[in-house]
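To make the argument concrete, we let one protein speak, a sequence paired with a row of structure tokens, as a model reads it:
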Amino acid sequence: MNEHDISTPPSLPPKLEPGVLFYLPLEWLHVDPEITCRWQGKTEPGLVKVIAQAFKSGGHVEPAKAALLNGRWTLIDGLHRYEAFVQATDPKTIERKRFPVISMGEAPDAVTARWWASRVNWTAHKNLTKVERREAFRRYVQANQHRKGEKRRGNFKSYREIEADLPGAKRSTLHDWMHQDFPSIAAAMAGNDEDYGGNGGLRDWQEVKAERQAAKLRDQLIALGGTEETKGHAIAAAEEAYWKLTGRKPRAIPETDGYGF
């Protein structure tokens, strides 16, 4: 495998040839918790410590993976290795400039970068948790991997084909996830065109989440109203907050506590 050592960071992000091993200065590597596939960007301290010892002893550590996103090199795979390298090296030494990464090229957008991170880790040594696998499925759909064609704008794949893309996930599970997270896509795949939202359902699960958060906030604001007058102001503020969060007119205030979301 070819290697390149970037000892002095240039004025612009270096162009790293896809598939080639580079030693990249840490200051040129951006770590975004929204890109990495680990839940909320959290790592396991014990695993980080073990990898840090490998770095210190000169043992073999598999290179991380990075992609150029929005003009800067962003970590795609290797969050534990990154934190271990930071832990194992002195900030003042040249070794901080030798973090091993393999370039995945340029990611066209953050949605694609998020899917790349989950795809790399789907069958990785450090298994994804149930929550991370569900998030990986969402990223798969958001990146239009559930469609055929070079630009992912063709016909829908079957659940059998999606199962082949995500080995280890049962077809019945994928079917349930699609109906729960992307009901518009699920309806279109089933041929129910009248139930198809037109936007592919790519925001369905996010809209549900926002609606739940808005309803909770609405409850809290209304609860602040002690008198009829203050309650009226609280309701008005809650209605406006709900509308801004969801873009929808809130349902009528129920007689019972809670909003049924």
Q: What stands out?
A: The CA atoms of residues 21 and 102 lie 5 Å apart.
